[in-house]
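Person: Please work through this fold.
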Amino acid sequence: MADRDALLRLCRYYGIAPDYWDIWGTHHDVSDASLVAILAAMGVRVGTPQSFDAAIDAAERERWCSVLPATIVLREHATPWKLRVHLAASAEGSPVTWLLVEENGARHEGVFEAGELPSAQSCELEGGRVAAREFVLPVVAPCGYHRLAISQTGRTLGETSLVVAPARCYRPPALQHGERVWGAAVQLYSVCSARNWGMGDFSDLAAIVGQWGAAGASIVGINPVHALFPHNPEHASPYSPSSRCFLNVLYLDVEALEDFRGCEDALALRHSEQFQAELESLRNAELVDYAGVAAAKFAVLERCYTHFCDRHLALDTPRAQAFRAFQVAGGRALALQALFEALQEQFHRQDPNVWGWPAWAEAYRDPASAEVARFANTQSKRVEFYQYLQWQADEQLGTVGINCLQRGLAVGLYKDLAVSVDRGGAEAWANQDLYAVTASVGAPPDDFNLHGQNWGLLPMVPERLRAAAYAPFIATLRANMRHAGALRIDHVMGFARLFWVPPGGEPQDGAYVHYPVEDLLGIVALESQRNRCLVIGEDLGTVPDEVRAALSREGILSYRVFYFERRHGGDFKSPHEYPADALVTVSTHDLPTLAGYWEGRDLSLRHALGPSTTDVVSARLRAERSQDRARLLLALEREELLPEGAAADPVSPPEMTPAWIRALHTYIARSPAQVLVAQLEDVLGVRDQANLPGTTSEHPNWRRRLPLALERWPEDARFIELTRSLGKERPRVPGAT
């Protein structure tokens, strides 16, 4: 079809890698068709060799015509700051003025002669020659977001967002003083309690913070609590959100709302015999009944909102003013989030096949359309209802953050940030220009997914992100660092490259697209320091050495899972071989629990569900798991942690008991890793994992409930003995918090 060399030149310009290596060490060339499809998803449409060259020329001309790039990210310690500016030959005849305006309003300005600046490159454009010159900014601005403009004879030649970032991310005082902290990781929806309405909520989270804090823990981690889809509560994956900037309102504790306690209508419904029976059924369900939970909560929440309108908004009380302030602070983003949810609710009610905004009537797909504005006006109360829910969710999660501080947790609440957003959701609708809305993020084939993975999430287009001065990325970080002491960034390698699946293609047809990793990491460091938030990068899988080195340089903790920490021969690493700048855990939500791993339950389940792996691969994985059981026993024996009366016998391995689970957590607790988290599923001996990647309806992903009620945890021997062991291995350092 095309000249491969011309196509590759164009792909190189847009950061698309023409090949990749899989986990088996096999090299794959990405097909021409896939490369062209990914370019088209970026908005670059080509079809002939001539069009490839024309597209490169057009992109080059656009770059040379820009006096300054849209965004420049600098480091405060890397001075002097040398900036590349593109100046036409005509600019060499008179002085050029520069103006730096700091975000606090402070102004710095000066003058330079264009012809006196060093020049390394030049380009002939229709208007004449343009030279790339090196301008050394003669002032040093503090860390922050500033504006730099260059002008001549009163006319602005170019302007840029100038970001000055610190050298490293924030570390809590305890970690700066060498303390090795520990805590829990919980899938919040899975929590059973005597008072919740069938799934864990923010009041449960506050109780968990209290329990683990009292036992000596310094950190409590949760799954992503991003906004999902109120119209479709069965869309349960926290890693496929409608928006990462807002919260999942199903985590609201309805009875903790001030408006609930004052609303006779809501109280009457809650205490009705039928409603109480429904709640009892939801609490006793084997799996989380999201539809049932949503129906119960929304029935009461709507009454609470009506009460709020009548008793507060109508009277402009201080509480009403607090809500109005929240609306103002949320701005356009909050307005569009609520507007999306009201629109999707209405369209889905009219036609259950309407799954998201791409299925709406065309006039409503543009957030700026007259039809959308008219809906916002006529349905203003319903839109405001969804803003009210976000306000209440933010208040309840904020209370959890305050509890962490009051109880002296050295790190506090540990939140999780998903890779991207669902294509049918609010964030994609509101920011269509930012995303490649026809492509998907995924992963190439591996042992467990021979055909690769398509996660159904949208990738941001790198050039569009830079052109937006990284504002959407900054907003996402701020929203997720809010109320948190730590943030885990899922698939942190995505800052350097993401695997794009082309429109209409299969995962094996995909290609890696590179991102401005140094800019993104600089902004992460800036927001981390400003929000006093520790950052953990989930760097599992194939991670380029330069990416892991960059994470270490930035002060981002590595994410180390016991299962994967091996020596070259396959043996498990000794505790002292773990890095200090890391969070360590036995397992994760996407991997088998310790009990399930020990039994090989995950392998049996995959085999039963279908041909995600071949029989040959399945047999190999089973053999490897048998070897791993023996290696695990030997690792514990080396550390003298085998439970009393046990021996490292690979032929007849012992049953996975609480003593074994405690021994393995003690093993990783001896590592120098600064943070350790224990999964609640492992603490309670759960055999089934929370999520089985590559499955949807075949497995109850994100629906399993913990087997022990929250109120009983502090008296459970497994909880008591495990927290005692972790506290012994990792005692709090006096004064470190």
The chain is about 40% helix and 20% strand.
